[in-house]
Specification:
By secondary structure, the protein is an all-alpha fold. It has two domains: 17-66; 71-176, AhpD-like, CATH 1.20.1290.10. 63% of the residues lie in helices and 0% in strands. The protein is built from nine helices and no strands. Helix 4 (71-85) packs antiparallel against helix 5 (88-100).
Length: 190
């Protein structure tokens, strides 16, 4: 039997649940019983450091489910981060969620292929443009900031920056520890 070489071996597998400390078990149960429904991807790796897992999953819950951004805008931001970082697991986990949230397949495909998306409205354009500007310029010009604040409002702009920061942490974790989607999932970002 030949080994599937599409995905490199994960560097740091999740801790063995049979060997969890009481705190690891507590955090595992908190994550699994929440809206995620399971402990996988970066959260599973973070369980090696249960306090990191606890705090990151709390921030992640806010960034994923409770921000002032509409779900389609959050998912657009998340996919933009996945594309930038080449985080296949993140793309695998969120492309379908983006469709469910109402992001057009053409926008998702354009983000995936790094081509100009056919945005549905100014909010999508500003979310994607803001994310890309932050990634390439390490900040926003005065004009880009003014437009983002005007289109999104300051509350949603603050939440957008929080989502981008959290998904940078996610993407870095996925890439450093080589957390991959299931072996039967096609590569989308290479």
């Amino acid at each position: 039997m030949t080994q599937d070489t599409r995905w490199p071996d994960q560097r740091l597998p999740a801790p063995d649940p049979a060997r969890y400390s009481p705190r690891q078990q507590e955090i595992h149960e908190a994550i699994a019983s929440g809206p995620r429904g399971a402990v996988r991807g970066p959260l599973a790796v973070w369980l090696h450091r249960p306090e990191l897992a606890a705090r990151a999953q709390e921030l992640g819950r806010y960034c994923r489910y409770d921000t002032s951004l509409a779900p389609r805008l959050s998912e657009l931001a998340i996919l933009t981060m996945a594309r930038h970082w080449g985080a296949e697991f993140e793309w695998y986990s969120h492309a379908t969620e983006a469709l469910k949230a109402g992001l057009a397949p053409e926008v998702i495909e354009a983000v995936r292929t790094d081509t100009p998306p056919p945005y549905a409205d100014d909010e999508e354009r500003v979310v994607h443009g803001t994310a890309r500007a932050i990634l390439t310029d390490k900040g926003l010009s005065d004009a880009a900031y003014a437009e983002a604040a005007s289109v999104l409002g300051t509350d949603r702009l603050v939440d957008l920056v929080g989502v981008l920061g959290y998904y940078t942490l996610i993407s870095m974790t996925l890439n450093v520890f080589r957390v991959s989607p299931p072996a039967d999932a096609p590569r989308q970002l290479s």
